[in-house]
Each structure stands twice: as C-alpha cells, then as structure tokens.
Write a structure and sequence with these properties.
Blueprint (H helix, E strand, L loop, with lengths): L1 H16 L6 H56 L5 H25 L2 H21 L3 H28 L7 H17 L8 H13 L3 H7 L3 H35 L7
Helix pairs in contact: 1-2, 2-5, 2-9, 3-4, 3-9, 4-9, 5-6, 6-9, 7-8, 8-9
Length: about 260
C-alpha cells in the first residue's frame, strides 16, 4: 500500500507537469500499476478478515455440534431409566396411596386385614416398577455413562462454548444437574429385587394369613412391620423422584439451547 501511495503522488505530479499528455500507453500502465499496488494489499486485508470470520463461524458450528451431540447422549441415557410415561404415572399414584393411606391405617388401627392389603399393594407395586423403570444394574450403568458425559461437557465443551460466545447454562442449572445425577445414582432402587426371606414372609401372610414370618423379618409387631415397609416405600419414592427430576432437568437444558431430542 505504501508503494501504491508513492505511485499516486508521482502520477499527480505528472498530471501537473503534463508528463502524460502525449504518453497514453505509459499513462494506462502507470494507472494499472498504481491500482494494483493499492488493490492487492487491501484485498489481502479484506480476505484475511473474511477468512478469520469464516474460521470463527466454523469453530462455532463445530463446538455447537459437539455440545448438541453430548447433551443428546446424556438425555438418551437418563430417559433410558424409564420404560414408559404411563407406567411411571401409575407407579407414582400407587406409591402415594400406599404411603398416605394403607400403611398409616395398618399402623394406627393394628388391623391385620389392613396390613394384608398394604402388603399386597406393595407386592403389586413391584410388578408396576419392573414395567416402569429398568433394573438397578442397568440404571447404574446408564447413570455412570451420563455422569461421565456430563463431566466431559463441563470440563471440555463448556470452555469452548464460552470462548466462542455461544453462551452456557447458569451455574445453578449446572449444579442442579450434577446434584441430580448423584442423587439418582444413590437413591435409585429396584424394589423388584427384594431378598428371598422378605418375599417368603410376604407370601406367607398373603396366602396363609400367617404373620409370624414377617414379624421375625422385621423383628417386631404389626406396627414394626408396617414401619419397615414404609421405610422401603419412602426409599422407592426418593429414587423415583430423583430419576424424574434428573430427566426433567436435562430436557430443560436441551430445550433451552435447541438441543432437544430428535422427533
């Protein structure tokens, strides 16, 4: 560009001095050279800016694609914990009835028929649970995969998103997903995997109206039996609530960034 400036000055002096009046070829040549000396560096500057801009856009697309793929994999993991929304809804309803109505009645009224009804409902809930949620072993594998992908998202993808000005979820939302991953892993419990002694004791009550095996199992009276079952029910509720909250939180993250699961 400096050379272009010098050529321009010389051309202007030539105009005043009349150098170019009778030299049309040199006039055109000088004009062409001057334009080239100006144009090439200017074009290079523009091209460099365009290339940098295109490179940034390419980087942004790459980071956004990686973020979307990672969140979709996490969403696939956590939604894999449940097998069907209808069964989960039924599970919630039946656990609520057992916890709020049947077990309190069996404890307070010391009624064996009410205890039998509560135990039968608890056994039936196991069947619904096996339809609504996957086994504990399967759940732990899915949660481990989701936790590993979430760490990758935070440690490797998030810094690039911030650097590329793509935005990121709030600190509170990030903490919530991390907390729920831990809570679901700790709380997830498959009540279909009762130990054999408890199953036999429940069957004795339901088929032979024999309360003694359950009394031995829970080391107490009818009240202790109801309290022991209630503890297991509460554990199941906690696991179910943590699982559903985790799925909802990851879905909110995906929806907020346009990373929703494919239709």
């Amino acid at each position: 560009m400096v050379r272009g400036g010098v050529s321009t000055v010389l051309g202007a002096i030539g105009d005043f001095a009349g150098w170019w009046d009778e030299l049309p070829f040199l006039t055109n040549l000088a004009s062409t050279v001057t334009g080239a000396l100006f144009g090439v560096p200017l074009a290079l500057i523009v091209l460099q800016g365009f290339t940098a801009n295109e490179s940034q856009k390419r980087d942004q697309r790459g980071v956004a694609t990686l973020a979307k793929a990672t969140v979709r994999e996490i969403l696939h993991d956590v939604t894999g914990l449940t097998t069907g929304a209808n069964d989960v809804g039924e599970l919630y309803d039946r656990i609520r009835v057992l916890n709020d109505e049947l077990l309190p009645a069996a404890r307070d009224k010391h009624s064996q028929p009410l205890l039998v009804a509560a135990v039968r409902e608890w056994r039936d809930i196991h069947d619904v649970w096996s339809r609504a949620l996957v086994s504990q072993d399967r759940a732990q594998r899915l949660l481990r995969d989701a936790a590993a992908r979430w760490r990758f998202m935070k440690e490797h993808v998030q810094p690039h998103m911030v650097r590329q000005q793509l935005g990121w979820i709030s600190t509170e939302d990030a903490k919530e997903i991390g907390r729920l991953l831990t809570a679901a892993s700790v709380s997830y419990w498959d009540p279909g995997e009762l130990d054999d002694d408890l199953v036999r004791a429940m069957d004795a009550l339901l088929t032979a109206d024999d309360l003694r095996p359950l009394s031995r199992y829970f080391a107490g009276t009818q009240y202790a039996i109801a309290a022991g079952i209630d503890e297991q029910v509460e554990q199941s509720q906690a696991g179910l609530a943590a699982t559903e909250a985790l799925i909802a939180a990851v879905r909110r993250l995906a929806a907020a960034h346009g990373w929703a699961e494919p239709a």
